[in-house]
Amino acid sequence: MTAVTPQEFEHTCEVALRPNDFDWAGHLNNSVHVQLLESGRWQWGLALGADLRDSSLVAVVLQLQLDYLKTVDWDPVGRLVVRTSLAGRSSYSFTLSQDIERTDGTVVARGKVRLGLVDRDTKQIHRADLQALLNTPGRVA
């Protein structure tokens, strides 16, 4: 079996919505979309084997573009899907493409997030070597 590389890997995860995720108009609050993208990024990394929870490296958002395409109406027990894939990379950053979808596949928001890696203790910027991140030891379940 061949190992999957970050370039080939697309990950989807379902995220539960909470009653307080909705604004007074009964729509999913715009700030919740950003939180959903973050959940999707974590799940993408963990599924690839890159567990930064106990690492000295921290992924930081350098740029965020988010297009709101459709409303998500009040559903306090609803679920949305976040689809995440690698869109690009450079020496010191990588960009993820992320879609937020209803469970029927309708895309409600589309985002691109450029991330960099910083050492938690020294605050030094690190090269964005995604292949090396796959060897980041994770927590034991």
Overall description:
The chain is of the alpha+beta class and 141 residues long. The protein has 2 helices and 6 strands. It has helices spanning 30-48, 130-133; strands at residues 10-16, 57-68, 79-89, 94-102, 107-119, 125-126. Strands 1, 2, 3, 4, 5 and 6 form a 6-stranded antiparallel sheet that branches. A hairpin with a 4-residue loop joins strand 3 (79-89) and strand 4. The longest helix is centred in the N-terminal third of the chain and has 19 residues, at 30-48. The chain is elongated and about 45 Å long. The relative contact order is 0.24. The mean pLDDT is 89.
H/E element sequence? EHEEEEEH
Q: Write down how many β-strands occur, each being a DSSP E stretch of 2 or more residues.
A: 6
Kindly provide the radius of gyration, computed on alpha-carbon positions and rounded to a whole number of angstroms: 16 Å
Provide the structure class.
Answer: alpha+beta
The largest pleated sheet is described as: 6 strands, antiparallel
Shape: elongated
Helix content: 10-25%
Chain-averaged pLDDT: 89
Low-confidence stretches: none
